[in-house]
Amino acid sequence: xxxxxNGEVQEVAAATLAExxxxxxxxxxxxxxxxxxxxxPAGLRAGHxxxxxxxxxxxxxxxxx
Length: 65
Known about the structure:
- The protein is mainly β.
- The protein contains one helix and five strands.
- The chain has a single domain, classed as Ubiquitin-like (UB roll).
- This is Sulfur carrier protein ThiS.
């Protein structure tokens, strides 16, 4: 399905947010996620179903100052 990931349209074969993160190479990375501007906590990603055209934001924490 077509998803918009961090502003870029991508074809991703995944039914859930957790599967999409695996396909996109994030696997077990510590990231924050939102789907259609709604925050999705790590514990809910496996049950968060995706639909064609969903907008996913993936943000990695930064260190330093």
